[in-house]
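Bit of a strange request maybe. I'm writing a small parser for structure token strings and I need a real example to test against, not something I typed by hand. Could someone generate the tokens for this chain?
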Amino acid sequence: MLGRNGTYVGLRKYQTRVGAFNRFLRANGRTEEERELVAAKLVGRWRSGAPLTLAADVDNPTLGADPQRNNDFDYSRDTRGQQVPFGAHIRRMNPRDTELSRLTDVNIHRLIRRGTTYGPPYDANALSEKDDEVARGAIFLFISANAMATIEFLQQEWINDGNFVRLGDERDPIIGRQEEGAVFTIPKQPVRRRIHGIQTFNVLRGGEYFFMPSISALHWLANLQE
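Reply from user aminoacidic:
Good idea to test on real output. This should exercise your parser:
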């Protein structure tokens, strides 16, 4: 009875190396606009939350603040990844209708995710290695009935591998664990851009799996007789 209709909860805690991220942006963008575009390409969204598929050239804070619109998109008009690179964080985490080279059934890897931040807010002027050690980052909860087919799969295949989108050894530029010489590919015409120096910008500091009983199981527990 306790296990009926229950599910699993995964916990992940990341520490953000803000200084390293800011140094990387400054090394790969001559102007503030160029740096913001590089950041958006890595994530797949602008800082406001507006997706590049709906705001390809400049940020749109109104769109980013609209929960009815900022997640209502697919990649049918971006089959070459020129708006949202194939290796961008949000495209990896949910390829949607992207043509994949393997493990092509996206729907069996879906989960419910909620997150929050901790520590001081993001500081655009943080540039030193000391800033990398500040205790700030994000905590995520993932809910899924099959942890191996979702949370573990995402970590192993879509975060830390690139073959499913034909990117070889490239890893998620935001939460992937990077190795020396890591790159990020931005498709564009006439020649793609490959950005070198991708680092581990978010360090995994902890994680655990928990069982979450159903409401009916909680009722059953509450009514147990001694």
